[in-house]
Design goal:
This protein has 319 residues and is of the alpha+beta class. The protein is built from ten helices and 13 strands. The protein folds into two domains: 3-173 and 308-316, Ribosomal Protein S5, domain 2, CATH 3.30.230.10; 179-306, Alpha-Beta Plaits. Strands 2, 3, 7, 8, 9, 10, 11 and 12 form an eight-stranded antiparallel β-sheet that branches. A five-stranded mixed β-sheet has the order 5-6-4-1-13. It catalyses: L-homoserine + ATP = O-phospho-L-homoserine + ADP + H(+).
């Protein structure tokens, strides 16, 4: 193909119970593509990069400061190690995810960019090499390499980060009947600021609770114990500290619980929140309430989602 478009979905990092080790890809049930897209085409001239999309105005004016340019340079280096040369390209990032939202915005750009580049070069890098490169680029932005957004964004579903025996992550079964009501208020929290608010040390009791909850959640997912899995979705690592950065977080939790939510949590570093529900009518009622009471400006949005089991993919040849 002379051109193609890659799509990478939004994702929830941590998923409450798994700080830096769990991540989930999102797919709104109305068919909306909540994620970033990257267009790529061959050109006879020099490399060019453009930006479009709802949140393009938040990107740097200089394309050399755009993460897609970093993807291009990193992929070119990976090809060079194999004795190959990157093609002359025109690329465009359609930025549909807000920066600093807790929805894996940078991961979506990186994953879409690298998926587009790899597909355009006949998939020279395998899946594991791609995820490692994605994590490396994510680390350049956040200050440390972590995969809880890039892995689910690339591979889909609910992913557990392993980083052992050459395995970055593996898929964990979840519950198809769960609706994930995800609301972004329209404000931003930087990952660095969200990490700075966390304590440098945790009590033995908190460590034991964290381990028990994570192990219990994974066990419940495999043994299909929905109520037990929901009961384990508790965050003792980040939420007690980050909740203060999100206005009305406690109100969201209380109202969602009234409507029968199984769990409420902070998506990644926030300020996006997610609520797990099993009744679509109640999920729609919560969505309406969040749009009226939690979203603060025109940048905000709320979607009822299922897990995106496919992850990043090629979706066409034009934006």
């Amino acid at each position: 193909m002379m051109s193609l478009v890659a799509y990478a979905p939004a994702s929830i990092g941590n998923v409450s119970v798994g700080f830096d080790v769990l991540g989930a890809a999102l797919a709104p049930i109305d068919g909306t593509l909540v994620g970033d897209r990257v267009y790529i085409a061959a050109t006879e001239g020099e490399f060019t990069l453009a930006s479009s999309g709802r949140f393009a105005h938040k990107l740097p004016d200089d394309y050399r400061e755009n993460i897609i340019y970093d993807c291009y340079l990193s992929y070119a280096k990976a090809l060079k190690k194999r004795g190959l040369t990157i093609k002359s390209l025109l690329m465009e990032l359609e930025k549909n995810l807000p920066i600093g939202s807790g929805l894996g915005s940078s991961a979506a750009s990186i994953v879409a960019g690298l998926e587009a580049l790899n597909a355009f070069h006949n998939n020279v890098l395998d899946d594991n090499e791609m995820v490692l490169l994605m994590g490396e680029l994510e680390g350049q932005l956040s200050g440390s390499v972590h995969y809880d957004n890039v892995a689910p964004c690339a591979r889909g579903g609910l992913q557990l980060m392993l980083e052992a025996n050459g395995v970055v992550s593996q898929s964990i079964p979840c519950f198809d009947e769960w609706y994930w009501v995800v609301a972004y208020p329209g404000t931003s929290i930087s990952t660095a600021a969200a990490r700075e608010i966390l304590p440098t040390e945790y009590s033995r009791a908190d460590c034991l609770t964290y381990g028990r909850n994570l192990a219990g959640f994974i066990h419940a997912c495999y043994s299909k114990q929905q109520d037990l899995a929901a009961a384990m979705l508790k965050d003792v690592i980040a939420e007690p500290y980050r909740a203060q950065l999100i206005p009305k977080f406690d109100e969201v939790r209380d109202y969602a619980k009234e409507l029968g939510a199984l769990a409420t949590g902070i998506s990644g570093s926030g300020p996006t929140v997610f609520n797990v529900m099993t009744d679509l009518a109640q999920a729609e009622k919560l969505q309406t309430w969040l749009e009226a009471n939690f979203i603060q400006n025109g940048d905000g949005f709320c979607h009822i989602c299922k897990l995106d089991k496919q992850g990043a993919r090629i979706v066409g040849t034009t934006l």
